[in-house]
Amino acid sequence: MKTSTTLELSQFAEDVLNGLSSTPKTLSSRYFYDDEGTRLFQQIMQLPEYYLTRAELKIFAEQKEAIGEAFTSGADAIDLVELGAGDGTKTAVLIDHLLKKSVDLTYSPIDISQEANDVLSQRFRSQFPDLRINPHTGDYFKVLGSLKNSNGRRKVLLFLGSNIGNFLQERALDFFGQLRSMMNAEDRLFVGFDMQKDPRVIVAAYDDAQGVTAEFNLNLLRRINRELGGDFDTSKFSHYAQYRPAECAARSFLISREKQTVSINALNSTFDFEQWEAIFMEISQKYTHPMIEEFAEKSGFEIEKEFFDAENFYLDSLWRPSQNRER
Ligand SMILES: C[S@@+](CC[C@H](N)C(=O)[O-])C[C@H]1O[C@@H](n2cnc3c(N)ncnc32)[C@H](O)[C@@H]1O
Q1: pLDDT tens, 150-174?
Q2: Collapsing DSSP states into helix, strand and coil, what is residue 173?
Q3: Probe ligand 1: pick from 163, 281, 284, max atoms within 8 Å of CB?
Q4: pLDDT per residue over 180-194, tens digit each?
Q5: Fewer CB within 10 Å of terminal CB in the chain, N or C?
C-alpha cells in the first residue's frame, strides 16, 4: 500500500484503508448494503440454495401463535424494534398475526439502507394501514442509546436472518452486551441463528449456481469505485466461499486472479495484489445449541423460549435480560 498525504476520511474510507492495508487484506461486510447491495441481497433470499430465509419464514408461519404469546406474555403493549430489517417479509407474518390478535403494537425498523427502508415502509403502510410504524435509516450501533427510554411498554428487539453470524465472536458478545445494558427487565431480544448442518448445504448457500452471491461480494469493490474513486476491475477478482465444519464457520473471499495494482483516489493510495491473493469479505457463523447457551449467558441473557424448524436447520431464540447480573 502506498499513501502520499494525510486525508480527512469518512468512516467507510478509513475502514477500506485499514482493511486493504492489513494482512490478510479484508473488507468489512457491513458495507455490502448500499442500495445495489440491498437489491442483490433480496435476490439472494430467493435463491434455491439460500435456505436461511425459507427456514425462518417457515418458523414464523407455523409457530406464530406461540411466538406471539411469548412476545406478549405479561405485557399489555409491545414495541417491536427490528435491527437491520431488510425487506421485512418474515416480520410481516408476525405483525399480521399480532394485529389480528388486537395487540397494542408499534414497529420501528432500523436499516442502514434507505432503499430497504423505503421498500419496507411502502409495503407495510399499504399492508397494515393501522400499524404505527417509525422507520429509521441509520446504523443500528448508533441508535442503541435511544432504546433505553422506557415508556412502560415492552420492547422486543428483533435481530433476524442470522445476522449475528456476520460478527466475529468477540464483537457479537460485545454487541449483545451493549443491547443488554439498554434493556429493561421486561424487554426481550429475539435472535435468528443458523444451526450447524451438512457442510455441503451450508457452502452451497454462499456459492450459488447463478453467481448472485459472487455479484453481491463484487458489488463492494464497485461501491469503492463509485464512492471512493477506486479503479477495481471486478473481472480480475473471483468469489470463493468455504465452510470449516470444525469451527462452524463459513467464510467468503474475493481472490485476485492476477498480480495487479488498484488505486483509490479518495485514499490517495494504491494497493498491490499478488496473483491469487485473497480479500477476506465475510464470516457467517453457524451454531450448535451449546454455543448459543454460552453466548446468551456470557452476554447477560437467559433463554426464555426457542423455536426450531422441523429439520433443526434454524433457531429463533427469545432471550430476557438475566437478573442475577447487572452489566
Ligand atoms: C443479512 S440482511 C438481513 C435482513 C433481514 N433482517 C432478514 O432477516 O431478512 C442484513 C440487513 O441489515 C442491514 N444492516 C447491515 N448493517 C447494518 C447496520 N450497521 N445498521 C443498520 N442496518 C444494517 C442491511 O442493510 C440489511 O438490510
Answers
A1: 788 999 999 999 999 999 999 999 9
A2: helix
A3: 163
A4: 999 999 999 999 999
A5: C
